[in-house]
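Box 3.1 A note on notation
Throughout this textbook, protein chains are presented in two layers. The first layer is the amino acid sequence; the second is a token string describing backbone geometry. Keep the layers aligned when reading.
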Amino acid sequence: MQNKAKMKIFRTRAMEKVFSAEDLDQTLKVTQPTGWLALLIIAVLILATLVWSLTGSLSVKVGAAGILLEDTDGRQKAAIFLPLSEQTEVSPGMPVQITPAGFSPQEYGYLLGIVSSVSRYPLSLQNLTTLLKNDALAAIFCQSGPQYLATIELQNDDGHKNYTWTSGQTLPVSTGTLLQANIIVSEKKPIALLMPGGN
């Protein structure tokens, strides 16, 4: 009986403290200011990601190896060799980013070019040997099977085989230099990758 009386007194005092008129004008702290700041940063990041996914773009690229050659007019062109699976994706007019051997993209950026033509039929080993004038090199390019030829017109040439790279530097590249090319076959909005069949 005594215990019940004590519990009743405790509850009464607790309720009086909760509903005390002295405490009614005090601000209730829901969270710390740092908590609100963290929520604000997260909201801004989510909003920025959403805007980028709707307005930004991602390049879909086809990578291939090639070599810098010189045509009968003395102008340099890039010869890029494509397997059948990638040849069907490439067509004239597509932009190309070119990295010649020995030139770091982090330091020099890229040479820019445009696809000017794509062969309708694959090149035989004999065709490649005639084009490259080098049996060993032709054999290397043919290792993975028949190759299609994509010819790339180089941009930003000053007329003396000096090229303005994406880094802003102006540098020449020797004929016969091996290279790696990224052909930009399409541009997609990031949000499209979340859609069925968007990859």
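Strands lie at 58-70, 76-82, 95-100, 111-118, 148-154, 162-164, 170-172, 178-188. The first helix runs from residue 2 to 18.
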